[in-house]
Design a protein that fits this description.
The chain is mostly beta strands. The protein has a single domain, classed as Porin (Beta Barrel). Helix content is 13%, strand content 54%. It has helices spanning 2-20, 51-63, and strands at residues 37-49, 77-87, 90-105, 110-129, 134-153, 158-159, 168-187, 191-205, 209-210, 218-219, 236-249. Strands 1-2-3-4-5-7-8-11 form an eight-stranded antiparallel beta barrel. It is elongated.
Length: 250
């Protein structure tokens, strides 16, 4: 993933350099198109990390080492979608990253299942470069995460009940700073195809709190102790995406 990320950065830099070499500073920006309004949507893959969540998974593997035939893997890569709208220097988008789901045999009759889902909202100031061939965006990203932990029995029954202290849907919120660089691979008057690289870094996050009536209450904590630190919604890393654009007005 590191090599892919470096390759994309180099490609975007080369594309941007080629598009800007004959531009003056004032010509770089779409000053004459202040009413430009685009909608877009596409797919994305993320390389996000949450150190506290991965520490929780490592602690769980250690505590249950004698029961698990194989430990749970650290949280990292997820795939999903994004849709949004861009008006000149403002960019708003919502997205969702698909479930990072794992299951491991915990006993002869049960499996432990861990499921992570992430959704987000972007609010960016965005700057068109080279007459809209490239966009640089910077702003804030709100992240909502849901960590689900439950038991699955051999008969197919799923339980979030109190027979296990880990059971529950633990929901958290986070605020991130984010930057994005996007280049249009195909650009026509009304539509285009864009490739973007997006970095997000955590500013603040809440702990994952269980609100289920039938599940164990409280926060998802490291070592599952009430005196331990809650696992917070602190995600950092890169997203790589491909978006289709359509211009509603120029």
């Amino acid at each position: 993933m590191i090599y892919i990320r470096k390759t994309i950065i180099i490609l975007l830099a080369m594309m941007c350099s080629k598009g800007l070499k004959s531009q003056t500073f004032m010509e770089m920006f779409d000053v004459g198109k202040l009413n430009r309004f685009d909608v877009y949507g596409g797919v994305s893959v993320s390389n996000l990390t949450n150190k506290m969540l991965n520490q929780f998974i490592a602690d769980y593997n250690t505590v249950n080492q004698s029961k698990l035939s194989e430990g749970f893997k650290p949280f990292r890569t997820m795939a999903g979608y994004e849709i949004g709208a861009r008006w000149t220097i403002m960019d708003m988008a919502v997205g969702s990253l698909g479930a990072f789901r794992q299951s491991r045999r915990l006993s002869p009759i049960t499996e432990r299942v861990m499921d992570v889902k992430v959704s987000y909202v972007n609010a960016f100031g965005t700057f068109p470069v080279a007459k809209g061939k490239f966009w640089f965006s910077i702003g804030l990203q709100t992240i909502r995460s849901v960590y689900s932990a439950y038991l699955k029995y051999n008969n197919g029954e799923v339980s979030f009940g109190k027979e296990s202290s880990f059971n529950g849907n633990y929901k958290g919120l986070g605020i991130n700073g984010a930057m994005r660089m996007e280049g249009l691979l195909i650009k026509r008057e009304k539509y285009g195809l864009g490739l973007y690289l997006h970095y997000t870094g955590s500013i603040a996050g809440t702990g994952g709190i269980s609100t289920d009536n039938n599940a164990a209450k409280g926060a998802l904590n490291l070592s599952n102790s009430l005196t331990s630190t809650p696992v917070k919604t602190n995600f950092n890393g890169f997203m790589l995406g491909l978006n289709c654009h359509y211009t509603l007005s120029l």
